[in-house]
Amino acid sequence: MSRFFLFTITLSLALIHSIVPAKAVSLPKIFGNHMVLQQNAEVTIWGWGNPGEEVTVTGSWNQEAVKTKASNLAQWQVKLKTPAAGGPFSMTVKGHNAINLEDVLIGEVWLCSGQSNMEWTTNAGIDNGAPEIPKANFPSIRFFTVPHRSADGAQIDVAGEWVVCTPQTMPHFSAVGYFFGRQIHQTLNQPVGLINSSWGGTPAEVWINPEAIAQNQSLAQAAAKLEEVPWGPVKPGKAYNAMIAPLIPYRVAGALWYQGEANVSDPGNYAQLLPALIQNWRQQWQQDFPFYLVQLAPYKYGRPHEGAMLREAQRRTLTTPGTGMVVISDIGNKDDIHPRNKIDVGLRLANLALAKTYGKKEVTYSGPLYKSMQVEGNKIRINFDHVETGLVVKNGKELTHFEIAGPDNRFVPASAKISGKTVLVQAPEIKNPVAVRFAWDNIAEPNLYNKAGLPASTFHTGANFAESN
């Protein structure tokens, strides 16, 4: 056989091989075995393939094949309609190759994010956590943990995998996330998927699309003042690009947020930043999902009142539609920035979601929240939301942590008493009161509660709360 003939055969085989499409269809890691898809929704499934490659996605829950073609950028996406909660199901993605995903559940999917108090795991030593580990056998609860990563631009994938909740996997997942998810699962009797994307010590700036900060002069100026730290990023978008963007638009029921310790030095800025983050996430997901946050616990921060002012900034975020907040002033630890009672934090978030997202009207989910005030002579009457059953003084006869100010905006300690579902506040030296503030101290553990046993939030009735004495 001549060398020319061998060369011709070899060349022909190479040409034939070159026109056989490569097995290019693939999925981001957020899609995998054991995943949970949001129920009763139109969920987006996306991935990559050869340009022009036909891709068919089929869910076993309805066997409806949805077809598309990969774009010239080798990208594709389809939308699948999901049924009510159930499973396990399977999902098949077919192009020139096939991907089969098994043990897929349909249920409620929640994103958990923030800094170390969200990241904190059960095996890190939470209160009463050890007895919960062997009981964490919930096959219908699934976890996905996003590892710490940062990036200068939006990434298309994350490392990680969905795992089933067992006594082996639960200790390594967000404790707040787990106890939230367990309560949702047990109350609704539906599968729950939890995605934890959090990083200890990070300011909120790193969790927002950097374009959203760049377009806001005030936020951009504040972000430019952040100084680098050894434990994580501080520049706008660094965590968002690597730990949030690759998850979008994976359909979620809502987001849980436990963050703020890294922003206490500029609470006035945080009052703008957190609503901007919420709006940005909703825009990026194209979904106005609920956003529920944890107010910071009492702690000995460095400068007077900065913790209180950050808590007030968080409370004022509640004017953003579709938000909610749990107060934990009674279950914190003023000597530890990481309060170890994560179980009650998770349960309070779950009650918030059960009431506001899932319509469980019998669930009480909030302590008293400042609503309005009226000046009555030398007194100010404070009105609250979430006091349907009334107000109480816990562990004492006198209300604590109230202050009142006159026109000079100088606050002095005040006496306060419950009057029906309101509180009357006064001080002998203030004849013409104009403002009241409550729990205005970094380590304040006030004793005003509603009769459901939940504490009142820090509040300040003035517009410029970050400038008061």
UniProtKB/TrEMBL annotation:
Top EC class, one word: hydrolase
Statement: the UniProt record of this protein carries the keyword Signal: yes
Entry's Gene Ontology molecular function annotations: sialate O-acetylesterase activity
Annotated signal sequence range: 1-24
Keywords carried by this UniProt record: Hydrolase, Signal
InterPro entries: SASA, SGNH_hydro_sf, SIAE
GO biological process: carbohydrate metabolic process
Matching Pfam families: SASA (PF03629)
Domain Sialate O-acetylesterase: start-end pairs: 108-352
Known EC number: 3.1.1.53
PANTHER family, alphabetized: SIALATE O-ACETYLESTERASE
Name of the molecule in the record: Sialate O-acetylesterase
Organism, scientific name: Adhaeribacter pallidiroseus
